[in-house]
Structures are given as structure tokens and as C-alpha cells.
Amino acid sequence: IWLLNEKYGNICWSPCAAHCLNLILQDISKMPHVVDLARRGSHVTKFLYNHKWPLGWLRNRPGCTEILRPGETRFATTFIALKSLHDHKLDLQAMVTSSEFHGWRPSRSTRGKTAKDIILDSRFWNDCLVIVKIVGPLMRLLRIVDSDEKPALGYVYEG
After folding, report:
1. Number of domains in the chain
2. CA gap 29, 50 in Å, rounded
3. What is the pLDDT of residues 3-51, one digit of tens each?
4. Domain span holding position 148
């Protein structure tokens, strides 16, 4: 590329913005604090999706949407899943403090107790909020540049 640039000075070259943003998100997701946060969030999500009762309880809440699970292929999905969990914070806390939850047998298992401890841990929620606020602008930009609807490079340089 550099040889072409020397020979043809009028050629503009720009790296793929979506790829660069994914690499940035990958680096952030490898930070030890973020790895631990994602692991804890994944534990809660797996516990919820492995049982019918919590999903049914959450779906019956007014205005409640699905809790998104992290995917394996893109690093952005880790942060999308953490944001989704944070968006459901109040419903999750109401669920694990309800009498129905305490009477439900899996809530007394090791995994159930761990999920409940994570859901009631204010530090977990504060860390989720910090990460969501940090990567939020990167995620919005990734959504813009990864779209096939219209050219996005102008928006990248404008913002």
C-alpha cells in the first residue's frame, strides 16, 4: 500500500473503521476487570436462560424485554449483553428478593445463590454502568460504520 501511495499520491487510503473499532473493543474486553465483569454477567444470564421460571417471571413484568446473551464471534456482544443486564437491573433485583424466588428450589442451589449474590451486588451494577458508558460511544460508532445502508465515512470524520 505504501508503494502505491508513493507512486500515486492522489490515492486516498483509510483502514476499515468497523475492524478498527472491533479491535479496540477486543482490547477492552481482554482487560482483567472487564473479563471478570463479563464472567459474572454471563453467570447471571446462563442461570436465567437455563430455567423457565425466571424467564417467565421477567416476561410478565410490564415493559420487560429479552435479556441479550453474549455471542462468541464479536467482541461488541459482550458489552451489549452487559448493557442489557444493566437495563434489567431493577427487575432482576425484584425477582431475587421476591417470595416466589425464595420458594423456588433452584434458587437455593450453588448457582442460584451465586446469581442472586451477583444481582444484589451494587459494585457489579456500578461496574456495568461504567463499562456501558465507556464503550457506548464506540458501540454507536460501530453501528454507524458497520451499516450497509449509506456510506458512513463522512460521519466518522464529522464526529
Report:
1. 1
2. 25
3. 777 787 777 767 788 888 889 999 999 999 999 999 999 999 999 989 9
4. 32-62+74-152
